Amino acid sequence: MTGLAIGALLTNRHAVAREARKLVRATAASLSVGDRSRADDAVRRQSVDIDDERARIRKPLGDGTVEDAADCRDALLMAVKEYHRQTSLDTKHKQGAITAAQIDVFEVMLTDDDGFDWSTGTVDLAISQYREKSGKSANTVQAARRRLKAMGVIEVVNRTIQTGREKLFGVPQRIQISSLVYFTPENMIVPLKALYDRFVGQLRAARTAREARRRAKGEDVQRRRLEVRDRRQKRIPALLNPQGWVNIVAAEDRARRAVDADYAALEAESLAFATALARSTAREGRLE
Questions:
Q1: CB–CB of 94/252 below 8 Å?
Q2: What is the Cα–Cα distance from 117 to 78, expressed in whole angstroms?
Q3: CA-to-CA distance for 162 and 175, rounded, in angstroms?
Q4: Given CA atoms 265, 271, 274, 278 in this order, what sign does their dihedral have?
């Protein structure tokens, strides 16, 4: 700040107050390291750490056997498809209470080759993986999850992991990773639950009949228990969320450069305003 500017401020206490407020705002903006919103929104609300008990869901479908889990999984998909067909006939819904595109995403959730874990009844695919496997957009994937949750078909656990990066202003210490999805047929809306109960009953009856025929032929029929698999979780943030990791590294770089470049200038400007403020206050007796 120049000497002329300081002199002008001394003659007008209101100008001093106004300029002081501008300095505070400018300082705060400078320290925000450019993209503050990205740092604030690095993780979604109600997210839990990957090691939190709430992120360790074990809720397999069925009675604990592979055969019954398969019947329950098939019944879920059949019920959702039938609900889509029935509601599509209603002009109120047009495309159905759940759309065909959203059902494509649901099928990915239920495919063991894609990420469905039989032993825990969970899916931990990232949005990008849903997009690749279903051929649908990210918006469609997110809309499908919201709709399925609203119908009581699934629950979603938002997860995060620590970044381990240097603690700098505006640099997140946690990064969002893929959400954990698990299935809740017991919580489904009434019409959908009725369809599910009907289909799972039919599938179980058909399986029991097949087993009876095999036993009649002298075959030894044994149902397989679901094995609890100790799936080693990926722990590398850069792999779990590549784009988010790039943003964090960029924010860290901006934070370092901003502190080095701005500190001396901010210090000098702050001292100049403090001097002007003190002189004005002394002359006027108070600062309004």
A1: no
A2: 19
A3: 6
A4: negative
Task: Give the list of residues 6+ apart from residue 172 with CB closer than 8 angstroms, or none.
Answer: 39, 42, 43, 163, 248, 251
Name which of 47, 53, 36 is nearest 174 in CA terms: 47
| CA–CA dist 8, 26 (Å, integer) | 20
Domain boundaries, the chain: 1-31+256-288, 44-240
Provide the token pair at 107. Answer: 């099928």
Q: φ, ψ for residue 249 (rounded to 5)?
A: -60, -40
SS (H, E, C) 169-210: CCCCCEEEEEEEEEECHHHCCHHHHHHHHHHHHHHHHHHHHH
Alpha-carbon distance 126 to 149, whole Å? 17
The side-by-side arrangement of strands in the sheet containing 48-49 is 48-49, 154-162, 174-183, 122-123, 116-117
Residues 6+ apart with CB under 8 A from 22: none
pLDDT (tens digit per residue) in 57-81? 889 999 999 999 999 999 999 999 9
Using one digit for the tens of pLDDT, what is the confidence trace for 106-138?
Answer: 999 998 776 788 888 999 888 888 999 999 999
Pairwise CA distance, residues 97 & 26, whole Å: 50
Who's near 40: CB < 8 A, 6+ residues apart? none
CA 41 distance to own-chain centroid = 11
